[in-house]
Amino acid sequence: MVNFLNALTSVPLGELEVGHHFYWQLGNLKLHGQVFLTSWFVIGLLVVASLAATKNIQKIPSGIQNLMEYALEFIRDLTKNQIGEKEYRPWVPFIGTLFLFIFISNWSGALIPWKLIKLPSGELAAPTNDINTTVALALLTSLAYFYAGFRKRGLGYFKKYIEPTPVLLPIAILEDFTKPLSLSFRLFGNILADELVVGVLVLLVPLFVPLPVMALGLFTSAIQALVFATLAAAYIHEAMEGHGGEEHEEAH
User: Fold this and answer.
1) pLDDT digits (tens, 9 = 90+) for 18-59
2) Which residues pair with residue 14 across a beta bridge?
């Protein structure tokens, strides 16, 4: 029985690999090359779309210009609703970058057949399929709302860490990091689970059964990008105002 289980666990599930990575060696540092490749693809796609939309601006927008203007208006409204009319403008680029990068990354995992591109080890997938990417986004969010709070309230921003008693200082610091980190784990878990489910279904039933799951994956991927960007803006507002953060998270 033991030999049978060992043999079973040593057999790969079709072409589906989990936990294998394509590394780049940079001195003593190992980099996930597959994540850089797909991230650069997403960034390149966004840059090309931006250049195409602004190359020949028309008074009555159409095509890619119309799409990008709609995206900008959506991001601007999202940021304004979370941060407020007076403070939102400087944060539109940051929130917009978060939303668009996560949105395109998530959809690339669902729409682009990355697994057809062979690597020496591992396989290509959406950038948000890797925990390193989502944690990096969470740390950027943490730095953003620390900066926002300090810039708006000065040294008074740090009073919240010792109120109502300095005993709560470690808990208050931990809370500021765990909120965006929880977002990163949720984003990573949802994208990884979606790609694994679709991969297994394609292996088992390769024709029409995976299509509804893929459609649902596109919807949930968009929602994940929206939730991450919305809560990032809410945390920034909380840092500047010093209250009102928890109800934003509960609402989503």
Assistant:
1) 556 677 777 787 777 788 888 999 999 999 999 998 888 888
2) none
The answer to whether the beta carbons of residues 135 and 125 sit under 8 Å apart is: no
Q: What is the DSSP letter of 28?
A: T
Distance between CA 188 and CA 194 in Å, rounded? 10
Q: Domain extents for the chain? A: 24-251
Distance CA 83, CA 88 (A): 5
Q: Which residues pair with 26 in a beta bridge?
A: 29
Query: What is the pTM for the complete model shown?
Result: 0.77
> How many degrees, rounded to 5, is the angle at CA 25 between CA 130 and CA 186?
10
And the tokens for 15? Answer: 């072409």
Cα–chain-centroid distance for residue 60? 33
Closest CA to 115 of 212, 9, 17, 49: 17
Residue 133 contacts residue 35 (beta carbons within 8 Å): yes
Peptide bond into 90 cis (omega under 30): no
For 167-193, write each residue's pLDDT tens digit: 777 887 787 777 777 777 778 777 777
Token representation of residue 245: 């953060």
Cβ atoms of 104 and 45 closer than 8 Å: yes
